[in-house]
Amino acid sequence: MRKILIQLDTDTLPSTFDRVVAVDAGVDELFTYGGVTPANVTSLVHGAMFTRGPKDLQNTAIFIGGSNVAQGEELLAKVQSLFFGPVRVSVMMDSNGSNTTAAAAVLAAAKHLDLSQTTALILGGTGPVGQRAAQLLANRGAMVRVGSRDQANAAKTCDAVRSKVPNGKLTGHSTSSAESLMAAADGVNLIIACGAAGVQLLSTEQRKSLSALKVAIDLNAVPPAGLQGIDVFDKAVDRDGVLSYGAIGVGGTKMKIHRAAVDRLFSKNDLVLDTEPIYEIGQTL
What we know:
- This protein is 38% helix and 20% strand.
- The protein is an alpha/beta fold.
- Strands 7-6-5-8-9-11-10 form a 7-stranded mixed sheet, sandwiched between helices.
- β3, α3 and β4 form a beta-alpha-beta unit.
- The longest helix has 18 residues, at 247-264.
- The model has no long low-confidence stretch (mean pLDDT 96).
């Protein structure tokens, strides 16, 4: 029986990136829909649920994408609410690459650090990738500092992560000034920069002054670098005594995780691949 992936995209035009990855993951048939919302998704999900018998439903799966992660989360909740008993298909949510990118970044850090003994600062930590990186790190015992220009937003992100990781050790930090930024970075072993494209968050001089820093990961692929002095292609490159990763250096792992996760969808009919399950898939690669 042919493997069918139904791509539900919250954007008007479904992502070509996600379509290419699906094809490379070995999907036989790819159905793509744009402009999907909780209000209009029901018939699309019912079409996936009721066209094959229970034993064959593992050959149909749903992928939720789009550039707006909050909308993707709402769509995931709606899709799950439509399933009942064994009448369900596996579903993956990776809007804007948020889950696969965060997983790849944390896996890169874990190659060099014992995360349970790590103090990490996430710059741009209130965004979708930053929140997920914070969740993954906190769930592995790291002390996580969530950095944001707005202290209140950083605190809200910490609360949101604690709702998923109740024992998480998280603190919110303002990074709106050079002084507050360096105070937030003092004593950290790991920095992950998840800020907006083309925004420098930390200068080379500032980075060099952080004596405890061991690993720096910049997820910004658009010049200037989020962490000045780190090249977009860096992959465990020693930069002034700090093992450094750029966006493309992490991107290879992100792509492997994405393909493997799509493939995993067809192993069962009841998987929900969100942040933690996607990270766990990455650990097997």
